[in-house]
Structure formats: structure tokens, C-alpha cells
Design a protein that fits this description.
The complex is a heterodimer of chains A (145) and B (394). Chain A is α/β, with parallel strands linked by helices. Chain A has a single domain, classed as 3-Layer(aba) Sandwich (Rossmann fold), CATH 3.40.50. Chain A has 5 helices and 5 strands. In chain A, strands 2-1-3-4-5 form a 5-stranded parallel beta sheet, with helices on both faces. In chain A, α3 links the parallel β3 and β4. In chain A, α1 packs across α5 and α2 runs parallel beside α3. Chain B has 394 residues and is an alpha/beta fold. Chain B has 3 domains: 130 residues, Response regulator (Rossmann fold, 3-Layer(aba) Sandwich); 65 residues; 146 residues, Histidine kinase-like ATPase, C-terminal domain (Heat Shock Protein 90, 2-Layer Sandwich), CATH 3.30.565. In chain B, 48% of the residues lie in helices and 18% in strands. Chain B has a 5-stranded parallel beta sheet with strand order 2-1-3-4-5, sandwiched between helices. A 5-stranded mixed beta sheet of chain B has the order 7-9-10-12-11. Chain B has a two-stranded antiparallel ribbon with strand order 6-8. In chain B, α3 crosses α4, α6 packs antiparallel against α7 and α7 packs parallel to α11. The chains are: A alpha/beta (145), B alpha/beta (394). At the A-B interface, α1 and α5 of A face α6 and α7 of B.
Chain lengths: 145, 394
């Protein structure tokens, strides 16, 4: 049986994580959602450090930009510089619509940039569309290589 | 008040002796004495230093701090006129009067051109005191004017800074407010969807009000953000084809146009020199308003442009409810609304954004309207970039 897709959400706002989980409840892809609240935790999770010793490496990271400690952009830079993490697709999911944030994210290797919609239904649609695209259509890099 | 100002001599008044530090550039001892005597006779209490060359002159400027320089034109080792160069180099504004033997008119005029206040012939020294008084008065006026100009420049500077601070504040505030507001909006919506009909009827109403309020505030903050971004977010100016902009805007307004049955016509429009997004914002607000504030008939909107000097004058007119002339200025003020939300929704920011954009481009926007008789909005935009303005259009 094909393993269920692993999704890591990096967001310091638990309310947004809950909304994302709500959005994906009952989806056909059965995404396994993990979440962490700051950039340092995200790197620990990805590198199986500390209390994340036994976590599975995610197939997709949804990354907020404005994070405590190491911010989203720094996480992205670190991921893209690490040979074992650079293939994992990263979706930037941020409130910011600033040109420079968008440009900078793509410059350092974001796979796409989605602004968090203010409206609930748009928010749900965005999360569902991200899941459907990455776990439904895309050929992801093979696991464990 | 400057030093000179407090001691400014009243013309003709001689009873109080006026102290005056004089720097005299003169090689002839007798002449020097004659010159100084001519001033003393008129009631000046003189503190003078006499020099003959540039090093001594420069030194005396610093130690003696003269209020007036009297310079002979012809010196064996130096030209009196070069005193003017030294003064300029030292950044000093000290009136300099040439005191000389026969001096041709051409030379005299040349001296004054170079910055001498006046010239006095040695056989006409009786004029000298008056010339000095006038020079001091002029210098006083000059320094007053300079003071006023400096004050003005400082105020302009302060104003620009506080304006920039305010814009930065509005930007940061509206940006940071979005985040918590998004939570309120999302969760009241979620409450409304998940629990509609499961609580009592009042709860449904309360949730609906909370939800509506949050949504309205989101629009308000987004508009405020757009408003504060004008002139901040690195607007990229270039040649913008307004026909293309209008097509885009009509796409954005498609559902409003469909629902209202509006007809939007536009003539062949020119290109302007501006930021495309901002031009679109202006047209979207104006056309959007024309559709929104319609009367009983379906909205009919027309857009056209005509050349006005280096600018294009655009006209957006409609057959809507119009605006009473007394509100013609108010409508461009941020948060100014003329209707209740139930009549016409909106944040009261749209026209303020238009005005800010147009004014940033150096243009003007105004409305010509009567209540009940449609509105005509007019605005100007530059036709060419700042470097090309002078050239004729090909």
C-alpha cells in the first residue's frame, strides 16, 4: 500500500494550523499533518533532532514567513542548502503580499508562494488546492534518497 | 536677531556712536587715515585693522571679525578685489566696499558683479558713511531673509518627515492588524457555518453581526493598506497604455457590470507615464463608483481623454445619482462617505487613493456634478517621463 503523504506545517499561529487541519479533514489524500511553531523547531523536525528523533521526513512543507526565532526565509535557505532537504517542495504560506517578500522567497528557492486568504472559504480552498496539487498531480521526489 | 541687526544705524541719526569693526585693505598710510576719519566724522566708533596682503587679510578676518571690509583697488602686492574671493572661501558674508582712486566705470561695474557692495572714490569719501550704513542694512535684511528661508526649509523637512512617519505607521499598523483580524473573520465564519441553527436564533444573529463586522474591517484595512502604499511600495513608472488598463479593470468589475447591466464605453485612450497598478486602481475606483452609485437606470459610463499641455486630461462620466456641489471636495478625503452602508457599501477610501495616486504623479483630480444629474470625474496624468517632457511628441 502506498504510504500516506506527510505534510509539515510551520506556523506560529495555532489557529491557522487548526484551520488547515479542518480544511483537510476527510480529504481523499489522507495527508498526515504535523506542525511546529518556529523556525528552529522546523529544522529540528526536518533533521530528526531532539524530540523529533522518530519523525518521518515530510513530502511537503507549508511554511509561514513570519516566525519566532529563525524566520521562514531562513528555514527555506537552510533547507535548500542541505543536500538531504533541498528536494522537499516548500510552499510559502504567509499573510504578506509584499512584492519583496514574494520575490525574495522565489529567489531562495520557494516552490510556490501563496498569500493566506482572509476569507474562511478562500483559506479552505487554498489549503485544499495545495494538497490536491502536490499530493494529487505532482510527481514528488522519491522518498529515502 | 543678528549682531548687526541690534546695532543697525538709523539713517541720519548720529547722537549715539555706532561701534563698527572695520577691516581696511590699504597700503597708503595717509589714505588709510583719511578713510577712517571720513567714517569717524559721521559718528562711527571705529575699531579698525589695516592690512596690505592676503595672508594678513585672512588672519584679520578670523581675529578681528570685521563687520565691513573697505578695500583699495590697487595695491602693490595684492588686488583688493581678491578680498572677495577670500571672503567667499571663508564662507563669510561681510559687505565689501571698494575705496579707490580713479576707477573706470567698466571696472567698477565688474567689481560689483563680482560681489562688491559698492565703490567710493577717494576724492568722494563723504559718501562713505552712507554707503556703509546701506551695506549694513542690506546685510541685515539678507540675514533675516536667510533666516526665514532656513526656518521654512526646516519646517518643510519636518513636515516631510512626519508625513513619512505617519505613512509608515499606517502601513505597519494596517499590515499587522490584518493577522489577528483574519483569525476573527475566519473563526466567526467557521462558527456561522458549523453551528448555524444548532444554537438559538439570537446566537445566529450575533455570529452574523460579528462575522460581517470582521469582513468589513478587513476591506477597510486592505484599502487603508493600499492607500498608505501609494508612493511607498516602489512604484515602477513607465509608459502605460490606458486601453489595456481599462480592459483589465472591466474584467475585474465584470460581475458588477453584469449585475447592474452597466454599459462602459471608452474612446481610444493614450499612454501615460505612471505605474500600471496605480493607473488601474484609479480607473477601477472611478468606474466602480460610477456603477455603484447608479440611479434607477442601468449605469452608462464613458471614459475619454484629451491632451492638455504635457498632460492628458481624462474624463470619467456617468448617469448616476451625482454629488451635491458642496460635497465635491469632501469626497476625496479619506473615510468620507455620503451614504449609509445600507444604501451604498464602501470604506470611504477609494477616492482618497485616487487623489493620492494622481497627486503623486503631479496631477489633479476633481469632480463636476449636480445631485441627481450624474457625475463627471476629471483628472490629469503626465503624458511622458520627466526626462522627455520638453521634447515634442513625434
Amino acid at each position: 500500500m502506498k504510504p500516506l503523504p506527510e505534510l509539515l506545517i510551520v506556523d506560529d499561529n495555532p489557529a491557522d494550523v487548526v484551520l488547515a487541519r479542518e480544511a483537510l479533514t476527510g480529504s481523499v489524500h489522507g495527508s498526515q499533518i504535523s506542525s511546529v511553531e518556529d523556525g528552529d523547531e522546523a529544522m529540528a523536525f526536518l533533521n530528526h533532532r531532539g524530540r523529533y528523533l522518530n519523525t518521518i521526513r515530510p513530502d511537503l512543507v507549508i511554511l509561514d514567513l513570519n516566525l519566532p526565532k529563525r524566520d521562514g526565509l531562513a528555514v527555506l535557505v537552510a533547507m535548500k542548502a542541505a543536500p538531504d532537504l533541498c528536494r522537499i517542495p516548500v510552499v510559502i504560506f504567509s499573510t504578506s503580499r509584499l512584492r519583496q517578500d514574494i520575490a525574495r522567497s522565489y529567489e531562495v528557492g520557494a516552490n510556490c508562494y501563496v498569500s493566506k486568504p482572509g476569507n474562511l472559504n478562500d483559506f479552505f480552498s487554498a489549503i485544499k488546492a495545495i494538497e490536491q496539487f502536490w499530493f494529487g498531480f505532482v510527481n514528488l521526489p522519491p522518498r529515502g534518497e | 536677531m543678528s549682531n548687526v541687526g541690534t546695532k543697525l544705524p538709523m539713517p541720519g541719526s548720529v547722537e549715539s556712536k555706532l561701534k563698527l569693526r572695520v577691516l581696511l585693505v590699504e597700503d597708503n598710510v595717509v589714505d588709510a587715515e583719511l578713510v577712517l576719519r571720513a567714517i569717524r566724522i559721521d559718528g562711527f566708533d571705529i575699531d579698525s585693522v589695516v592690512v596690505q596682503d592676503e595672508p594678513a587679510f585672512t588672519r584679520a578676518l578670523r581675529t578681528h571679525r570685521p563687520e565691513v571690509v573697505l578695500a583699495d583697488y590697487n595695491l602693490p602686492n595684492w588686488k583688493g578685489m581678491e578680498a572677495l574671493d577670500v571672503l567667499r572661501r571663508e564662507g563669510l558674508d561681510v559687505p565689501t566696499i571698494l575705496v579707490s582712486g580713479a576707477l573706470g566705470d567698466v571696472t567698477a561695474v565688474e567689481c560689483i558683479k563680482q560681489g562688491a557692495t559698492d565703490y567710493v572714490l577717494k576724492d568722494g569719501l563723504a559718501r562713505l558713511p552712507d554707503v556703509i550704513r546701506r551695506a549694513l542694512r542690506e546685510k541685515h535684511e539678507r540675514s533675516l531673509r536667510h533666516q526665514v528661508e532656513e526656518d521654512l526649509a526646516r519646517k518643510v523637512d519636518e513636515l516631510a518627515r512626519s508625513n513619512a512617519d505617519l505613512e509608515q505607521f499606517a502601513y505597519v499598523a494596517s499590515h499587522d492588524l490584518q493577522e489577528p483580524l483574519r483569525m476573527v473573520a475566519a473563526y466567526t465564519q467557521l462558527l456561522a457555518e458549523r453551528y448555524r441553527g444548532k444554537l438559538d436564533e439570537k446566537a445566529d444573529t450575533f455570529i452574523a453581526y460579528a462575522s460581517e463586522g470582521a469582513l468589513r474591517m478587513q476591506i477597510l484595512i486592505q484599502d487603508l493598506l493600499a492607500f498608505s502604499r501609494v508612493g511607498q511600495d516602489g512604484a515602477a513608472s513607465g509608459s502605460v497604455d490606458c486601453n489595456g488598463v481599462i480592459e483589465d479593470v472591466l474584467q475585474v468589475l465584470a460581475s458588477a457590470i453584469r449585475e447592474s447591466g452597466a454599459v462602459v464605453r471608452h474612446a481610444d485612450l493614450p499612454a501615460v507615464w505612471a505605474d500600471r497598478t496605480q493607473v488601474a486602481q484609479v480607473f477601477q475606483n472611478l468606474i466602480g463608483n460610477a456603477i455603484k452609485f447608479c440611479g434607477k437606470d442601468p449605469p452608462a459610463v464613458s471614459v475619454r481623454a484629451e491632451k492638455a499641455d504635457q498632460n492628458w486630461l481624462f474624463t470619467v462620466s456617468d448617469n448616476g445619482i451625482g454629488i451635491a456641489p458642496e460635497y465635491a471636495e469632501n469626497i476625496f478625503v479619506i473615510f468620507q462617505r455620503l451614504h449609509t452602508r445600507a444604501e451604498y457599501p464602501g470604506s470611504g477610501i477609494g477616492l482618497a487613493i485616487c487623489k493620492k495616486i494622481i497627486e503623486h504623479l503631479g496631477g489633479k483630480i476633481w469632480v463636476e456634478s449636480q445631485a441627481g444629474a450624474g457625475s463627471t470625474f476629471k483628472f490629469t496624468m503626465p503624458s511622458r517621463g520627466p526626462d522627455e517632457r520638453v521634447e515634442a511628441r513625434p
